[in-house]
Amino acid sequence: MTGIRLTLTAMAATALTLTAAPAALAAEAGITDEVTMTLGKDGTLHVVEKITGASGGLKRTFITRTRYDDANDRLYQIANVKGGTLSGDVLTVTGETVEYDVKGAVTTSGGVEELRWFAVNGWNQQVAKATVKVSGPGQVQNLSCFAGELTSAIGCTSASMDHSATQADFEQEAIPAGQALTVVVGYPKGSSGGAPILERRFSLAAAFTLDTVTGGALAGLLVLLLGGVALIYWTRGRDARVAGHEGGAVDPVQNGHFSPPDGVRPGQIGTLVDEQADVVDVTATIVDLAVRGYLRIDEQPRQAYDAPDWMLVRNPNAPVHDLLPYEKALYDAIFDGRDAVLLSQLSGSFVSHLGKVRDALYADVVRQGWFARRPDTERTRWTTIGVILIGVGLIATAALAWLTTYGLLGLALVIAGGALAVGGQYMPAKTAKGSAALAHTMGFRQYLFSGELGDVPEQHRVELFSRYLPYAVIFDGVEHWARVVASVTGNGHQADNLYWYHGPAEWDLSKFAGSMRTFTTTTSGAISATRQFRTL
């Protein structure tokens, strides 16, 4: 019995082996793909595939983009899919027959219209055998096929046409998963009217092509845009012209009294000259308030390595109501309810007030009739327009570079926007009255640096030349004029202090020039450290 059982078991094992072997071979052999392609009159290729022998989920990845030339890619569009689901380039087969249309598979080369399509490609299973039948709107002029990788030059198993040259037949065996069978069939030119679908491939060299057309267009656009910027400045940004006799030297001493040009204050002159309310104007105004008796500057004693500091002391009897709006705003910013304050403490308390000082200074020069519009507003307007134009130019450059070869034209907008943004700083224009005041101011500056004391009585020189000092701060001549102040006294002897500036013990007027230079530098630094004046 035992021998019979062993014999039956061996026979069963042999039978199972013989049964499983064909199945394994079939699985290893792969699918069979019978492809029928028909090229229509409109250049659309209709494809029908009959697939047998598939095991498991069958998918195919179409080739929809290939390189056409140095500048373009060739696209193949798949549509009207039946017997499967297309997601992107991946087809999931749901039946034994698949149909779809291809556009862009035809191109004209010489006198032949060439159909090229990857009849079999991208299957996730091996194709044991593939047959392809191609018919079109004319007689076959030539045919070829390639098997293997997409760039393979190896011919397929067989390629032929029927006796009437209206159908081409191709065959290939054992196509590994992922590889392709590419068929090429030539028809007479104009048979289907099809054309390749091309998409320009992006490259910086191509996007910014410089040739006769783009170079000429760029030059013309630059001339037009930069000419427009120049025209805007010519019509809107130039100061009004004044008669020549408005300039020349000015003597600010009339009958022994100081009389600045047009009666203007140092802060006003500073804003008039450079069209900006900046730290120098505020520093000069602080010195001017001291010289005119609204406050006193006391230099603090210090050791060798201590930072210099000054106490600003309010004069309780000063007629504060006589101050101009910007002077009153600055006076309030300095003291803020205090009788005295150290200069080193101002950088913190100034923050909430200096915006008002700047606004008041700009409003003042407009109120004086020197500018038709606030200089800061005018600068901001044109600079903002320039920045917007730069942004538009960058967007235009990116769009033109991506879609065309005219990216250089967008750069013209960027350049023009940059010119307008920079030129916006020079757009504030003085009126005729402002130009006349500036001419007087330059004459006063010439007098200030001439070094001539004139006919000023010696007993009045300290007071009068002190009055000049704030204007010297504006004109960056503080050290020169401080030495002039320190060199004269009422009785011919060196003084210990000025009526508006007091030094520490053992300090005398001979040290005034150095003290004043350090004071103006430190004050400007304290002001510029605050938020409103940081960028000036």
TrEMBL record:
Keyword tags: Membrane, Signal, Transmembrane, Transmembrane helix
Keyword Phosphoprotein in record: no
Membrane spanning residue stretches: 213-234, 382-402, 408-427
Record bears the keyword Plastid: no
InterPro entries assigned to the protein according to its UniProt record, in alphabetical order: DUF2207 (IPR018702), YciQ-like_C (IPR048389)
Secretion signal, residue range per the UniProt entry: 1-26
Domain DUF2207: 34-186
Domain Predicted membrane protein YciQ-like C-terminal: 258-483
Protein name (database record): DUF2207 domain-containing protein
Organism expressing this protein natively: Nonomuraea maheshkhaliensis
